[in-house]
Amino acid sequence: MAAIHERAEYGIGDFVLLHELSLPAFMDNLRLRFEKGRIYTYIGEVVVSVNPYRPMDIYSPSYVQDYKDREIFERPPHIFALADNAHKTMKRQARDTCIVISGESGSGKTEASKIIMRYIAAVTNVGGQREVERVKDVLIKSNNILEAFGNAKTNRNDNSSRFGKYMDINFDFKGDPVGGHINNYLLEKSRVVHQQEGERNFHSFYQLLSGAPENMINDMNLSRDPKAYKFVNQGGDHKVASLNDKQDFRGVMDAMKATGFSLDEISTAWQVVAAVIHLGNIEFVGEDQAAVSDQTLSSVIGKMLQVSREDLEKALCSRVIAAGGNVVDKHLNVPESIYAGQAFAKAMYERLFSWIVGKINDAIDPKHGGYVGKNTVIGVLDIYGFEIFDNNR
Q1: Which of 12, 148, 150, 223 has the fewest CB atoms within 10 Å, i.e. the most exposed one?
Q2: Catalytic entry in 89, 105, 221, 233
Q3: Which keywords are on file for this protein (predicted)?
């Protein structure tokens, strides 16, 4: 059984073996194991994980070898055992398997999904085919890109996923990864225009301002100070002790190049981020008909989006109405234009994120590497943790 490799001082390694099936007994056992450095506990074949909020040396190559090709209850509870069991079941029975990761915000779901992917990469085709190695590299590096554009600091978690992700990892008949596919859903796009006190916008905004080279900052007419921009300063202090935005920017750039983004595509992605930053500072004037107060700023945004200043201002200050077979432009007042600008920023960022996911999918499509044989799948569902906000939009 799970507890056989652990002394009694670590509590019960499998909740199924608890003498008293009650919530207090469950929590007491979980607390005891956590205090003893045991962050994983089984409920049968389910793994309960408690975020330790500190680095732990339990994911090294020696641990990988300890859990490789073992039955799930042969070793103490560990997420490696779950990953190995899914991979082993898929190979033995030639059928698809799925790992569902759920929990509240800050519980460590995204880290768990990355640990599972790193374990599968470590135990498959060691030193083998070049294409398999490329797929594993893209699968792992894609996390950097998705976290930059889809994660944010919240009051409960410095690196909180603000989108749901379902990843299929495709394997050949030998059990080696040959591709994959990512489905993203429910990106929290309201964060683009509004953040609660103590929180930040998506990491990408701060990475651009902190890490972009000087010539890139100048070309985008940006200041490095987030306090200068409405869409990135509403939460207060923009610095996060556990994150290095400047270093993370370089990591994302390297990951995008390794994943197959061209230099033009990388530049375009960051220009859209810059355009959203500037869009938050657009102000409108007028009574019945709103107009942009600073045409220089709208020219800068137009340059980022490769549209004319006039077309941009028309999109912000009017809307098209079809009535009775006629199509007319209706001018917006100031509150309506502010709303239109926010809706534009949210839609633009959401489409950027979906485009990025699509580019990653192109890079890890099994057909990209020429694989046409039968494949099986391990699905990993990482659903984001829900929180209660003052304004859910």
Answers
A1: 223
A2: 105
A3: Actin-binding, ATP-binding, Motor protein, Myosin, Nucleotide-binding
The answer to whether 293 is a known catalytic residue is no
pTM of the shown model? 0.88
> What does DSSP say about strands 376-382 and 97-101: parallel, antiparallel, or unpaired?
parallel
Whether 373 is a known active-site residue: answer: no
| Mean pLDDT value across residues 27-42 | 95
Into how many domains does the chain fold?
A: 1
What's the CATH code of the domain at 359?
Answer: 3.40.850.10
**Annotated catalytic residue: which of 106, 164, 260, 286?**
106
Does residue 296 belong to any structural domain of this protein? no
Statement: residue 393 has pLDDT above 70? no
Q: Is 50 exceeded by the pLDDT of residue 4?
A: no
Token duo for residue 374: 């039968």
Q: Among candidates 319, 220, 326, 324, which has minimal Cα distance to 273? A: 220
Residue 47 in domain: no
Q: Is residue 3 part of a domain?
A: no
Residue 293 has pLDDT above 80, yes or no: yes
Please tell me the distance from the alpha carbon of residue 74 to that of residue 60, in angstroms, as a whole number: 18
Kindly state the tokens that stand for 129: 């085919």
pLDDT at 110 over 90: no
Q: Which domain holds residue 234?
A: 96-277+343-382
- Residue 160 a catalytic site member: yes
Answer yes or no: 105 catalytic. yes
Q: What integer pLDDT is reported at residue 305 of this predicted model?
A: 96
Structure tokens at 188: 């929290």
Annotated binding site for ATP: 103-110
DSSP-derived pairing of the beta strands 318-323 and 326-331: antiparallel
Catalytic residue among 49, 144, 160, 376: 160
Please tell me the predicted confidence (pLDDT) of residue 1. 42
